[in-house]
Amino acid sequence: MARISRCPVCDSVGAVEACRRDMPLHTVRRFGAGGGGDRYVELRLVACAGCGHLYNEAFDSELGAEMYGDGPLTNVPVHPSMTDRLRQLIVWLDVEAVNRAAPPDIIEIGSGSGHLARILAPLSRSITVFEPNRSLTAAMLPEPAIRLVSEELPPVGLPESADLVICRQVLEHLADPLVLLRAIRSCLREGGRAYLEVPNGGYVFEHAAFMDVHLPHVQYFSRDGFLHLARRAGLAPVKEQWIKGRHDFGILFTAVAPEPCPPSPPPGGDAVDLGQRFTARIAAARDRLSQLGPRIGLYGATAQAQSFVNAMAPSRRFPVVFDDTPGLSGFALFDRHHDIPVEAPSAERLATLDAVVVTAYLHDSAIARNLRAGGFAGPILTIRADFPTDEPDVDWLYTDSAAGPPGRSEVAADA
């Protein structure tokens, strides 16, 4: 079995373990599949002894096709705010200025549901979309400018040149992200730009966000570490933005000469301490759940939810997980002991519950408001690791947690 033997950011040898868990290969499986519906593999989160970069040292890149090839589509906009953010990104990128002589040729790597490509289509001459999930079909991208390539990542057949490459929430899934970064650099035309967006590993470390550690994510980039890796590939930042209250960040790059050995990024924090704070946060969540009634529903069939469910096992069983994504009907979250069916929220089902825990925590305020508008009067809690924003309907799951100070950090303040 292939393992990651060197730091993907600085190429150092040697790492310190933060935690080790067995995790399911898939986020969801068909409801009723039982124990034969999936298998568990080892996740070993380590911090590079040189630069502190967090990554899953045990990841086997050969699992990629099985993990992403035929599951439900991800990142499907289910709330107007999600589509609004895509439109705001297009404005931030100033797409029409990328090539003022003509509409730009764009490559999108890892499109998820394809919604961004469809919004970009009227502004572009061509959009080549690379997406490994075969659930996305050409019929779902009817615009003439869009060409879909169903291929594993990193893609082999990138076009020779493009004015803009967009790669959102992809690089963290790869065992060797430098390979894709170099491929992106090689296809940029003179004056071209690359927009790269990843989750912020600093959020995981600062807030002991154990639920954000799951099998799909191999890399947990800090901003400094990511910029270091980009310099190795020959990409220099033009501008950058924090996203979702510093949970993610996005950087617009231009092509420069690669730096094989740029200065090392600042060292990260204590991996052993992080593992201990993970343990404390999980214990706090289990304790809080034990104080609620026996019928606790979840909201959000996400990878974070799957990580949370397996961290709570076997002490807690959940009767249902709500999700607004139509393609998840008939699926279930699961641990080694039970399936949790995914259902669309309904007043009838909510009436059977003592409390709801929001596992799609990046949208916890909007979800809580919808639950209250739908008549749910019970407690609503969020699994987010940083203290929630000023939302009266959302309670924090980790009260009195020893995992870190619950005060509002710059992460929460930016939400």
From TrEMBL:
- SUPFAM superfamilies for this protein: S-adenosyl-L-methionine-dependent methyltransferases
The source's superkingdom equals Bacteria
A GO BP entry is: methylation
Q: Which GO terms describe its molecular function?
A: methyltransferase activity
Pfam families listed in its UniProt record: Methyltransf_23
Keywords recorded for this protein, A-Z: Methyltransferase, Transferase
Name assigned to this protein: Class I SAM-dependent methyltransferase
Q: Which organism encodes this protein?
A: Azospirillum cavernae
